[in-house]
Amino acid sequence: MRDLFHVPARYFLSHSVGCLPKTSEDALSTSYFTSWAEGGGNAWPSWLDVLGGYRSKIAALLGTSAGQICPQTNISSALTKIIYSLPRSGTRNVIILSPQDFPTNGFVFKQAERAGYRLKFVEGKVTDPQAWADAIDSTTAIVHITHALSNTSHILPVKSICAMARDYGAVSIIDIAQSAGVVPINLLDWNADFAVGTGVKFLCGGPGACFLYASQSALKDCKPVDVGWFSHENPFEMDIHDFRYADNAMKFFGGTPSPAPFILANESLSVLEHIGHDKIHNRIQSALSYLVQDIPDKVMVSPIGADARGATLVLNPADRAPLRAILKAETILHDERAEGFRFSVHGYTHASDLEALRHVLGALSRD
């Protein structure tokens, strides 16, 4: 798999930016520049095919239909579109979220206070369904759930939390940015109302190709405020006096899109699909198990069990300075957060890179 991607040596940062396939440049040249030139300046027919292809590929990955997928520029924009599309009830105005959610999500929800919402953070262990049960009640409007936490790699019990939200009539929104493509996902099984994700991380498509999923029931009830001609039932009708929402998730689209990010994303999705997402998932978990064999429990932040973690290893030694120094000296590409050092693995992570990282981490077992 490594031969198919541009992978820097000792690269453990796919949780931040996934590596692009080596065929990406040719795909962009053909589907963007060549289609423009050969179309005599009218590339929209082929560019619309690109968007349709992206929707189909994401739908296949998530176990749903293309009609329930809408391309998005980024997750923040997708969340904003969802929030202000929802029908309002005067007695329901609480948004439940976790303090461990990615900050951009929290920033978006904070702005919703201007529209009358209130934020409520889950207290206690967010992987425990009871913590969510204690937070959700009849005042809850939205429950936001991160599938795989970016700073610890813990997997949350999404299905049971969605059921709690549904029992109280609240809307569920799932962030799958750190799990899409590397952890099995079936949105229909979760019975989630919405999900948002990105192609920039483990889907290896680069920035700008994100997506929004909406369930069939959510699509019936939602009326997005942030719209544009691509939110129209017929974008090329061109009647300024007649706007009709698209009859599928494209009602969330908005104005003129940039096709280039989705061309890149389609190429990466095709490559990953050909390799097999299950095969990639199994290889990632095998590699993580190899890395943690000799690491003391007291240093571990991410879960040891394969079913409980995403694709990232997070470690927090009592004294970070020695590990920080050796990681720099050995040019192990990683990052560091308040929770600890983060190292992600992908299907293209080479065995020699894993061996180098394991050798470095071996010092932790001797401390």
Provide the succession of SSEs: HHEHEHEHEHEHEEHHHEHEEH
| Number of beta strands | 10
Shape: globular
Q: Which class best fits the helix and strand makeup? A: alpha/beta
Biggest sheet, spatial arrangement of strands: 1-7-6-5-4-2-3
The overall pLDDT average reads 95
Instruction: Give the biggest sheet.
Output: 7 strands, mixed
What is the CATH architecture term of the largest domain? 3-Layer(aba) Sandwich
* CATH C-level category of the largest domain: Alpha Beta
Low-confidence stretches: none
**Strand share of the residues?**
5-15%
Integer-rounded radius of gyration: 21 Å
Give a quick set of tags describing it.
367 residues, alpha/beta, Aspartate Aminotransferase, domain 1, seven-stranded mixed sheet, 2 domains, three-stranded antiparallel sheet
Walkthrough of the structure:
- It contains twelve helices and ten strands.
- By secondary structure, it is an alpha/beta fold.
- It has two domains: 111 residues, Aspartate Aminotransferase, domain 1, CATH 3.90.1150; 249 residues, Aspartate Aminotransferase, domain 2 (3-Layer(aba) Sandwich).
- Strands 1-7-6-5-4-2-3 form a seven-stranded mixed β-sheet, with helices on both faces.
Set down the secondary structure blueprint.
Blueprint (H helix, E strand, L loop, with lengths): L23 H15 L5 H19 L6 E4 L2 H9 L10 E4 L5 H9 L6 E4 L7 H7 L4 E7 L11 H10 L3 E5 L11 H4 L3 E5 L11 E5 L1 H6 L38 H16 L1 H15 L20 E4 L4 H10 L5 E3 L2 E5 L6 H11 L6
Parallel strand pairs: 2-3, 2-4, 4-5, 5-6
Antiparallel strand pairs: 1-7, 6-7, 8-10, 9-10
Helix pairs in contact: 1-2, 1-9, 2-9, 3-4
